[in-house]
């Protein structure tokens, strides 16, 4: 019954309405349900432990490969009010991608919310908007359209709370923040 309750927690927390509206609650229920399920199944049938260990080893391998592709860098955030988007430039990343690939971006700023440092699922996938440059100084460029809570917070962070455009501030006044780039 306990293993079944873990599966029900997985199933109910994966409903799109809950997952989209309350992501931290989804993540907590999902990870908790999975943990309860695995612990109960191993307690019920100890011979399953080898399969559980293989799954953990494969997951650890995936995490290791993701860490190898992860970079921490300084990015420039520029508001583009005409299009309602934020341009994210990472000048220190000059190669290693193609236009159209995606990277997962996490902004290391408390202005984006405390959950950015607590929850593991707060990196957002963004599509690369440029080809690797030949000394153009812009490096990796991604664009984030204002469509949700995270992208609205990113847009506000780029322009401060004043909402001034990049043209009014001048290119040199773009907001700089630390970012974690995973991928491509």
**Can you give the mean pLDDT?**
82
Taking pLDDT < 50 over at least 5 consecutive residues as the criterion, the unreliable ranges are 161-167, 169-173
Radius of gyration: 20 Å
Helicity, in percent?
40-55%
Instruction: Please state how the strands of the largest beta sheet are arranged side by side.
Output: 4-3-6-1-2-5
Main beta sheet:
6 strands, antiparallel
Percentage beta strand: 15-25%
Question: How many beta-strand elements?
Answer: 6
Describe the structure.
This protein has about 180 residues and is α+β, with helices and mostly antiparallel strands. About 45% of the residues lie in helices and about 25% in strands. It is built from seven helices and six strands; from the N terminus they run ααααβββαββααβ. The longest helix is centred in the N-terminal third of the chain and has 22 residues. The radius of gyration is 20 Å and the shape is elongated. The N and C termini lie far apart (about 40 Å). About 5% of the residues have low confidence.
In short:
The protein has helices spanning about 1-15, 15-20, 25-45, 50-70, 115-120, 150-160, 165-170, and strands at about 70-80, 85-90, 100-110, 125, 140-145, 175-180.
Helix and strand topology:
Layout: H1 2-13, H2 16-21, H3 23-44, H4 49-69, E1 70-80, E2 85-90, E3 102-108, H5 115-118, E4 124-127, E5 140-145, H6 149-159, H7 166-169, E6 175-182
Antiparallel strand pairs: 1-2, 1-6, 2-5, 3-4, 3-6
List its salient traits:
single chain, 184 residues, alpha+beta, 6-stranded antiparallel β-sheet, 43% helix
């Amino acid at each position: 019954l306990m293993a079944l309750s873990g599966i029900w927690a997985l199933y109910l927390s994966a409903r799109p309405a809950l997952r989209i509206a309350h992501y931290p609650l989804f993540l907590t229920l999902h990870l908790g349900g999975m943990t309860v399920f695995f612990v109960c199944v191993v307690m019920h049938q100890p011979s399953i432990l080898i399969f559980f260990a293989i799954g953990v080893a494969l997951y650890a391998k995936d995490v290791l490969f993701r860490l190898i592709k992860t970079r921490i860098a300084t990015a420039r955030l520029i508001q583009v009010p005409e299009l309602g988007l934020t341009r994210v430039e990472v000048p220190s990343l000059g190669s290693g991608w193609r236009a159209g690939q995606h990277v997962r971006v996490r902004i290391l700023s408390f202005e984006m919310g405390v959950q950015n440092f607590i929850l593991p699922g707060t990196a957002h996938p963004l599509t690369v908007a440029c080809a690797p440059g030949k000394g153009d100084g812009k490096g990796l460029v991604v664009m984030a359209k204002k469509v949700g809570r995270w992208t609205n917070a990113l847009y506000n962070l780029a322009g401060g709370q004043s909402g001034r455009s990049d043209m009014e501030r001048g290119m040199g006044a773009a907001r700089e923040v630390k970012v974690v780039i995973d991928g491509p």
